[in-house]
Structures are given as structure tokens and as C-alpha cells.
Design a protein that fits this description.
The chain is 75% helix and 0% strand. By secondary structure, the protein is mainly α. The chain has one domain.
Length: 380
């Protein structure tokens, strides 16, 4: 009797282990392609602490090498540049975690088997997070593998960096001179610009992910809770836009403290930063609305098919039961027309409007202050 009980317990333990192992296999831990590039390859082990440390060291080097020309504005300006550097380093891993959590949201309303959804999800996000996510072991992923798997992402990042860095130096009047202080300042601007340049191709490529959602079957019905619907995808993109907005505000502040007037080059520089924010905040919501409309069309086609089928049944066999079936489907028509086609929930709409107002407001404020020459003075 004890042997039978022991065998049953072992079987239950094996089933539990199998379930836990299967659950682990379904975890979608997203990794940014930047782990193939230094300093992200070093930062990945402790992203927050090492990003802070890297930014502080860079800030300290600039202060030490420019000790004889430090002012309050100088310290404030390079403190903000350090914050931009920190954002460029850390946000790569923060955004990865946001998309890792999004997978579990999708599981709530996707009708695909979890294993199939996990494969689809990893394949879809690998188009902007890099194909490193298709590797079981990501520890040895380096530049060679990145170039082989995602040359376009790498080239775009390098190309944008090559555009941003010289324009930064020119606009900020920080072309490197033959002294340590100038080189330190120019290097600080360069690494900060390079560290955030990955966000541009990421913002544009990630929009394709929303369009890919039209290819998978999802639950979609009137009054569906926002947290288990496609609206959760819109919330994720608003979170990304919030991160970009903070960096955009920091860039505008640095330009203001540097007394940068509005010129064609400086405008291009700021428009590029604003485009990243607008892509995530506005374009993503437009695309999500398009996806909702596609889903509504599918539901209406399905509804029309059932209505036609019920009507034909009634014509062939006019009974009370077939009549009630037709009436039931006709009553559903009003309900079908109420299917949501907006990516906003109540609070996310408020957040979107506040985010849009914030970015437009700081852009107008900078333009007004710049055109009228109202510059901050802190005992320079």
C-alpha cells in the first residue's frame, strides 16, 4: 500500500516538475541587441547600478578636466547631459522588460496556444530588439553575431550616431580642440548622443509589431476590459513615449542652457528627437486604431455569415426556433456596432493628452525663449 502511495506521489511530483519546466519555457525574456556592444555588454549584468555609475564617472571626468571654468550653468548643463547618457544606457534594458511583461498581457486575450504565441512573439520583437532573442543562450552574443543577424539595425544606429555627433558639436560649439577640457566636453556630448541614437530605429521599427497583431487571433468583444485587450499594447507605447519625452525635455534643456538659437540645423536636431516621441505616442495609437478596425471588420464578416446562415435555415424550416435565432442575431447588430476601435482606455487617453501637451508646450516654450533671447543666468 505504501509503495502504491509512493509511486503516486512520484508521479504527481513529475507532473508538477513538467508543468513548471513548461512554464519556464514559455517565459519571454526580451534582450536588447545592444548587449553585443560595449558598454551595454558590461551594463547588462546590473543595468541600473552600472548605468548610474557610468554616467557619474563621465560627469566627474568632465568636471575635473574643466575645473577652472566651472559655473552653475556648466554644472547643471552637464548634469543633464549625464542624465541623457544614463537614459540611453538604462532604457535599453527597461524597454526590454516592458516588452517582456507585454507578452503576459497578450496571453490573456490571444487565442493561439501559448507555445505558438511565444514563438510568434519572439520572432516579431526580434525585428527591432534583434535576433539575439531567438537564441537560447545569449551570453556569447557579440558584434560578429549582431552583424550577421541584424546588419540593418546596426548600420542605422551607426548612421544616426554619425549624423548626431558632428551636428551636436557644431550646434553646441564644442568641436574638439587640442586641450583636455575641450576633448572631455566633446566626448561627453558624443557618448550621450550615441547612447540615445538606438531609440530612433527602435521607435520606427517597433510600429511594425502593432501591425503584426492583425495576423493573430484575439478575443474581441464589446466592453472588453482594457487590461486584457489590445489597449494594453497602446499603454505600452505610451510608456515608451513617456521615456522618450523625458529625454526630449533634457535635450531641450541642454540646448537652452547652451543658448542655442533656432537655426535650420538646430531645428533638424530637435525635430529628430521630437519625431521619436511622436512616433511612439501618436503614430502607434493610429496604427492600433487601424488594428482595432481590422478586428471589427473580421467580427462583422463573421456575424454576417451567421446571420445569413440563420436566415437560410428559417427559409428552409420556418419554425419558432429558427425565427428566434434570426431575431437574436438581429438584436446583436447594435452590440456589434459598439465594438471599440480606439486604443485608449479612460486613463490612457488622459495620459496621451497630457503627454502631447507636455511635448508641444516645452517645444513652444523653448522656441519663444530662444527667439526672444531670454537666457538663464546663474552667476556665470
Amino acid at each position: 500500500m505504501l509503495d502504491v502511495h509512493g509511486q503516486r506521489q512520484k508521479r504527481f511530483q513529475k507532473i508538477a516538475v513538467d508543468i513548471l519546466e513548461k512554464k519556464a519555457e514559455l517565459e519571454c525574456n526580451i534582450t536588447p541587441w545592444l548587449i553585443a556592444v560595449w558598454p551595454w555588454s558590461w551594463i547588462q549584468h546590473r543595468p541600473l547600478a552600472r548605468s548610474v555609475a557610468f554616467a557619474l564617472v563621465a560627469f566627474g571626468v568632465v568636471l575635473v578636466t574643466n575645473a577652472f571654468q566651472i559655473s552653475a550653468v556648466f554644472v547643471l548643463k552637464f548634469a543633464i547631459v549625464s542624465a541623457v547618457l544614463f537614459a540611453g544606457l538604462y532604457n535599453a534594458f527597461l524597454v526590454s522588460r516592458i516588452f517582456s511583461r507585454l507578452f503576459y498581457r497578450l496571453r490573456q486575450f490571444c487565442l493561439m496556444p501559448p507555445e505558438v504565441l511565444a514563438r510568434w512573439y519572439l520572432n516579431s520583437v526580434s525585428k527591432f530588439f534583434g535576433k539575439v532573442n531567438l537564441y537560447a543562450d545569449r551570453k556569447g552574443y557579440g558584434l560578429r553575431e549582431l552583424w550577421r543577424d541584424n546588419p540593418l539595425i546596426l548600420l542605422l544606429w551607426l548612421g544616426i550616431s554619425a549624423l548626431v555627433v558632428p551636428s551636436e558639436w557644431y550646434v553646441l560649439d564644442e568641436l574638439p580642440k587640442m586641450n583636455l577640457a575641450s576633448i572631455a566636453r566633446a566626448a561627453m556630448y558624443a557618448i550621450a548622443g550615441i547612447s540615445v541614437s538606438w531609440a530612433a530605429p527602435f521607435a520606427f521599427f517597433s510600429i511594425k509589431f502593432v501591425l503584426d497583431l492583425t495576423k493573430i487571433p484575439i478575443r474581441y468583444y464589446p466592453s472588453m476590459p482594457a487590461c486584457i485587450s489590445l489597449k494594453s499594447v497602446g499603454t505600452v507605447y505610451l510608456q515608451l513615449a513617456s521615456l522618450y519625452s523625458v529625454t526630449y525635455a533634457e535635450v531641450l534643456t541642454v540646448a537652452y542652457l547652451s543658448r542655442i538659437k533656432l537655426t535650420p540645423l538646430s531645428i533638424f536636431w530637435l525635430v529628430l528627437a521630437a519625431a521619436i516621441v511622436m512616433t511612439s505616442a501618436v503614430v502607434s495609437q493610429i496604427v492600433i486604431a487601424f488594428v482595432f478596425r481590422e478586428q471589427k471588420q473580421k467580427k462583422l464578416v463573421e456575424y454576417s455569415f451567421h446571420l445569413e446562415q440563420a436566415f437560410q435555415e428559417f427559409m428552409k424550416n420556418p419554425t419558432l426556433e429558427t425565427y428566434e435565432r434570426v431575431n437574436e442575431l438581429l438584436r446583436l447588430e447594435k452590440l456589434m456596432n459598439k465594438l471599440d476601435t480606439s486604443g485608449f482606455s479612460g486613463w490612457s487617453l488622459v495620459g496621451f493628452l497630457l503627454l502631447l501637451g507636455f511635448n508641444i508646450g516645452i517645444s513652444i516654450a523653448y522656441g519663444y525663449l530662444s527667439l526672444n533671447g531670454f537666457w538663464l543666468k546663474l552667476g556665470q
